Give the backbone structure.
Amino acid sequence: VVVCVTGSAVVFRPELTRAFSRGPILVPGSGPAMNDQAIKEAARRTYPDFVVSNLFRNKQPNAAVEVWLESSDHTLHRLFDPFTGKDIGESVPFGLLAVSWLLDLHDNLFGGEKGRLINGAGGLLLAVLALTGIVIWWPGIKNWRRSLTVQRGVSWKRFNWDLHSSVGFWTAGIVFMFA
């Protein structure tokens, strides 16, 4: 269920990414911009427990500078004012983080490589379920047409069986495709 629901949202990933993306953040300021080393120092002062791993400048001189900071267990992507060195916020919009979160849940069940293996095992079991369902469904050459529809005017137990049999047949291909 989790993989199906998140997959329905992830289908729209390109559109969501476009909708949540933003252009460069322009900072009002004048005068000379700080050099890369000065911005790294400002980032270190703001986040003393982190080490600057990357710094990215936009082509526009008054665009915020993206700085990646890493600690032993966490990574930050922050924007800094190129004129004052002030931290002005997260570099990745919340919407993009949400799309990334959905994608990780869909692909890896938040479990990294182990989650992806569990996800694959679930897909394999679903494929086995679809295939064995068709084998069990097969009513024989004489009765196969009768098993494609639901009979009316029968007991509720028979109606339930016919419904399960016909819905199972008509959805087996879709279930196998999902798997």
Q: What stands out?
A: The mean pLDDT is 92.
